């Protein structure tokens, strides 16, 4: 997709603290110029995706947070930061130097988690890494960004995977894809990587379930994947890591899927971070009919937007434009058990819901509401149209607040 | 370009839905029940349809009224009330008076469903609870109001009125020779008939085939849980194969409300567990209880009560079968379990009313199961009554409720027993009398007020006294008349009309039934149990055995020459050329040429079977 006239680059595009702005209004920037430095360890840096002049730094609609600090850049020329695109020989670099590059180039988890990658690949030294899983399973139905990336750049992904393997010192490297993508499998195998084909069902792309399916082990509660010697990285993160290490290129663009019945053409695009939805949709031929919902992310866990001026941030893998949407009034629970059958985490959504309705948040916690993936399957299947995920999100938010209050 | 309205919809994920809904589910269940409904209409006539309509409409009406009174949201459009009414009607005998479905619906909807908080909060399956309520409080209606299906009936059993196959199975001895009856119930043809549904029974439970089709339709649409279905059927079949030794176990599977219960009652969303493991347990529990009730209580049927009792412990099952949460160890939480789970639903606080209701309702179910079943008790009483007038052990009926053969345990004819209702001074006098093979009275008894006896106290009522009835013993039809009319019976002073009526009733019945005392005539009934009439094909040699609707087989008369003696016998065979019975008429004592006779019978069968074509 061509470079838009104006981009909106948020300083908070990752989990953790927002990046600290290091540029001023009016300053000229080039493609790849660093705009924000990470604020502390649990943060990530932000780079400009265009070359031009900074118009303003102000609050602007944010796809996840509602509104947040944003750097607005008017694009004028096509000038790259000097040190970018030079091919680096990374063979001799130490692990620490490689992690520093990843951190400097603002790589975060591109599957949707937006977890800063440099933290993920720096496990405590006492943990031995057994397995690195590269997640090529599409995180949601309708999306095909990862598929496209694997079709187009298999060598980049595999090389990226090997860089991460080197950093982690993992014994085994596996690339997991879903059934029905045999072409991808052949291409990746040619590059010399172990490929595992998994069943095609949602939410296979979720980290915890992926690990369980491949290793038959579960991550105990309150522990992280590296505690059982596993790391999961998305293919897009791999590719971004490859570009960062090999070409010194920061994370300034990503692949997204544009789909849904409200847009004229469904497309898979490489877009600059900071491009507004509006422009992407215009590029896809515009809106088809009356649009009721714009969802960033996938249809199951994505976040619906209140305006189409929000920009793309690093973790957005899809854009779903819906004109026909499901709306039905909520009825009482009839205990059909669909939610229990569908829950991939073995929760009892019906019991959690009833506990929450009785304002018994402690009981909901006992029933495991914090384990919830928010995958949305329970709500998808509920014949009484109860927005279960909505209640669970609220409860999780409240519980986290209670926890952080205890800390303070 | 500005087709985007100012307002986009913002909501929590997910943004797509499976389009499942409660209404759709309810409608699909109704569709699944439709074939059986049409079939009942065809077999039981318009009356069955009226019962169903009354039940459905009153259920919807009561739901509306109670929600209006309690100022709740009116939810009759979700279709659940209609479904409850439909399922309730399916469990009722087609011949019930019209107030029964209305009362049942009222109990189901108002007490069991709405007073417990409406759909999703009820503990018991409303339709089954409604039926249980009716069964407990109106046992006479609920166990006798059967209608014979017009398409024809189970061959052989239709001689017995007002009974379902399961009732017969429970106490076969009161319906005739137990061996013969069990043989009849358990043969392939009967089971096939049961499977197709050509039998008497509740409106919605007759045709196993149609219920099965509906049930599989639901399973394919994943509206019912296969775990409950398999758990129930599996545990039931295993136990029935282990413990039912009298009859083909398949008989149990296709009779009564079992399949309706498995597919439409046990799988009810609200009252079955939500956990996968819990559903297996729930299904298995239903199967076990059904078998226990069917085999080891005094009641023929157990599906309804089995499911209701399992409903009761559903919250408890859910509690102990919580699935393991990802990343944690399995915890059963036994320590947290209390009896409260029997009536607690987390969202609602149960009041003392609910607790009392649950306890009383459960207690009355258990009490009902503990007391003898009404119809069976009546039948047993009847046999006791018959035994009182003649010394015999089996009483195969010839004319239902009126005439029985009296046989000893070796199937030898001892005589007949009949009932007669001559008009006395105050109405019909119910008389039971036994006659031996010589045509002499062996005993009479006159029924009390419960059978309609209403003669003048102190005068006419004295005909019941032994001093009067004893006079009849040993008398032949000729001698039974008052002395003033040339007979040998002393009239009761001041009650000539009553005395004369008794004599007249007995005398006339004896005359009209005398033919059954001729050995050959009675033997036809013995060698072909279940037949009601015999039409002669070849005079004194060959007869069709006929039920009310259907030709059942052939009865014939034959002989074997054994040296100087001729052994005469009578035998019968059914449409499958299976010998239904064989009786040697002459000589009376046992002969040792049984095998030769059997060969001869087989020859005869080959010859005569063409009459059945």
TrEMBL record, chain B:
Source organism superkingdom: Bacteria
Annotated keywords: Cell membrane, Electron transport, Flavoprotein, FMN, Membrane, Phosphoprotein, Translocase, Transmembrane, Transmembrane helix, Transport
Named cofactor requirement(s): FMN
FMN phosphoryl threonine, modified sites: 164
Enzyme Commission number(s): 7.-.-.-
BP terms from Gene Ontology: electron transport chain; transmembrane transport
Its job: Part of a membrane-bound complex that couples electron transfer with translocation of ions across the membrane.
Binding partners and assembly: The complex is composed of six subunits: RnfA, RnfB, RnfC, RnfD, RnfE and RnfG.
Protein family: Belongs to the NqrB/RnfD family.
Protein name according to UniProt: Ion-translocating oxidoreductase complex subunit D
Lineage: Bacteria, Bacteria division WOR-3
């Amino acid at each position: 997709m061509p470079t838009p006239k104006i981009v909106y680059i948020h300083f908070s595009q990752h989990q953790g603290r927002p990046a600290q702005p290091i540029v001023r209004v009016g300053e000229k920037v080039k493609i790849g110029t660093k705009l924000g430095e990470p604020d502390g360890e649990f943060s990530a840096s932000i780079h400009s995706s265009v070359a031009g002049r900074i118009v303003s730094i102000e609050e602007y609609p944010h796809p996840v947070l509602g509104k947040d600090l944003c750097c607005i850049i008017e694009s004028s020329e096509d000038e790259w930061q000097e040190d970018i695109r030079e091919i680096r020989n990374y063979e001799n670099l130490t692990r620490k130097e490689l992690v520093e590059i990843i951190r400097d180039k603002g790589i975060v988890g591109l599957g949707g988690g937006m977890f800063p990658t440099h933290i993920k690949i720096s496990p405590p030294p006492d943990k031995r890494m057994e397995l690195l899983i590269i997640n090529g399973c599409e995180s949601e139905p309708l999306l095909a960004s990862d598929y496209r990336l694997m079709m187009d750049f298999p060598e980049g992904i595999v090389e990226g995977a090997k860089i991460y393997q080197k950093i982690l010192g993992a014994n085994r490297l596996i690339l997991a894809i879903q059934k029905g993508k045999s072409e991808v499998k052949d291409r990746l195998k040619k590059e010399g990587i172990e490929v595992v084909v998994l069943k095609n069902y949602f939410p296979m792309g979720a980290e915890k379930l992926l690990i369980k399916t491949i290793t038959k082990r579960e991550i105990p509660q309150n522990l992280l994947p590296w505690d059982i010697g596993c790391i999961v990285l998305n293919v897009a993160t791999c590719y971004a890591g490859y570009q960062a290490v090999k070409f010194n290129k920061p994370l300034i663009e990503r692949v997204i899927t544009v789909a849904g019945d409200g847009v004229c053409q469904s497309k898979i695009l490489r877009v600059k971070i900071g491009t507004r939805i509006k422009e992407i949709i215009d590029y896809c031929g515009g809106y088809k009919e009356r649009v009721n919902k714009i969802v960033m992310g996938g249809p199951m866990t994505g976040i619906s937007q209140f305006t189409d001026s929000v920009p793309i941030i690093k973790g957005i893998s899809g854009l779903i434009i819906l004109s026909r949407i499901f709306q039905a009034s909520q009825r009482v629970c009839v205990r059909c058990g669909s939610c229990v059958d569908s829950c991939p985490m073995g929760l009892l959504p019906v019991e959690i819901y009833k506990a929450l309705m009785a304002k018994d948040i402690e009981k909901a916690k006992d029933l495991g509401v914090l384990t919830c993936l928010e995958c949305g399957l329970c709500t998808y299947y509920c014949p009484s149209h109860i927005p279960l995920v909505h209640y669970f999100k609220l409860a999780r938010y409240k519980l986290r607040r209670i926890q952080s209050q205890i800390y303070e | 370009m500005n087709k985007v309205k100012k307002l986009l919809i913002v909501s929590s994920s997910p943004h797509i839905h499976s389009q499942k809904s409660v209404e759709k589910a309810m409608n699909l269940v109704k569709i699944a029940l439709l074939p059986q409904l049409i079939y009942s209409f065809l077999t039981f006539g318009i009356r069955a349809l009226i019962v169903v309509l009354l039940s459905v409409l009153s259920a919807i009406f009561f739901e509306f009224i109670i929600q209006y009174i309690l100022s709740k949201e009116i939810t009759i459009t979700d279709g659940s009330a209609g479904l409850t009414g439909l399922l309730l009607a399916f469990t009722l005998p087609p011949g019930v008076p019209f107030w029964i479905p209305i009362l049942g619906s009222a109990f189901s909807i108002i007490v069991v469903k709405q007073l417990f908080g409406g759909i999703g909060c009820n503990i018991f399956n409303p339709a089954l609870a409604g039926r249980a309520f009716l069964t407990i409080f109106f046992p006479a209606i609920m166990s006798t109001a059967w209608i014979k299906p017009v398409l024809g009936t189970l061959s052989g059993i239709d001689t017995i009125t007002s009974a379902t196959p399961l009732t017969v199975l429970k106490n076969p001895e009161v319906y005739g020779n137990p061996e013969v009856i069990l043989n009849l119930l358990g043969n392939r043809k009967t089971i096939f008939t049961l499977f197709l549904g050509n039998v008497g029974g509740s409106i919605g439970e007759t045709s196993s085939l149609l219920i099965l089709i509906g049930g599989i339709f639901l399973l394919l649409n994943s509206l019912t849980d296969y775990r409950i279905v398999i758990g129930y059927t599996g545990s039931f079949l295993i136990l029935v194969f282990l413990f039912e030794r009298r009859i083909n176990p398949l008989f149990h599977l296709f009779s009564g409300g079992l399949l309706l219960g498995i597919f439409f009652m046990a799988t009810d969303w609200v009252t079955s567990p939500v956990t996968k493991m819990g559903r297996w347990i729930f299904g298995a529990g239903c199967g076990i209880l059904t078998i226990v009730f069917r085999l080891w209580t005094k009641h023929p049927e157990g599906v309804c009560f089995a499911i209701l009792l399992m409903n009761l412990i559903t919250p408890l099952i859910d509690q102990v079968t919580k699935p393991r949460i990802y990343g944690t160890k399995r915890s059963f939480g036994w320590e947290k379990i209390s009896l409260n789970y029997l009536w607690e639903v987390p969202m609602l606080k149960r009041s003392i009313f609910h607790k009392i209701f649950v306890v009383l309702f459960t207690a009355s179910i258990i009490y009902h199961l503990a007391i003898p079943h009404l119809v069976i008790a009546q039948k047993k009483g009847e046999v006791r009554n018959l035994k009182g007038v003649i010394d015999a052990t089996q009483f195969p009926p010839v004319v239902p409720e009126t005439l029985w053969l009296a046989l000893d345990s070796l199937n030898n004819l001892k005589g007949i027993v009949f009932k007669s209702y001559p008009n006395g001074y105050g109405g019909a006098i119910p008389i039971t009398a036994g006659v031996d093979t010589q045509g002499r009275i062996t005993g009479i008894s006159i029924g009390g007020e419960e059978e309609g006896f209403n003669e003048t106290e102190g005068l006419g009522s004295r005909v019941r006294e032994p001093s009067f009835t004893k006079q009849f013993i040993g008398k032949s039809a000729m001698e039974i008349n008052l002395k003033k009319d040339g007979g040998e019976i002393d009239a009761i002073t001041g009650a000539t009309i009553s005395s004369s009526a008794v004599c007249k009733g007995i005398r006339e019945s004896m005359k009209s039934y005398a033919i059954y005392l001729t050995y050959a005539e009675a033997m036809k009934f013995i060698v072909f149990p279940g037949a009601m009439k015999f039409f002669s094909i070849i005079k004194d040699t060959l007869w069709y055995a006929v039920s009310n609707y259907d030709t059942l087989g052939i009865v014939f008369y034959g002989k074997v020459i054994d040296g100087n003696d001729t052994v005469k016998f009578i035998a019968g065979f059914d449409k499958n050329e299976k010998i239904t019975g064989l009786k040697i008429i002459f000589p009376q004592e046992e002969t040792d040429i049984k095998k030769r006779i059997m060969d001869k019978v087989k020859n005869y069968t080959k010859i005569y079977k063409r009459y059945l074509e």
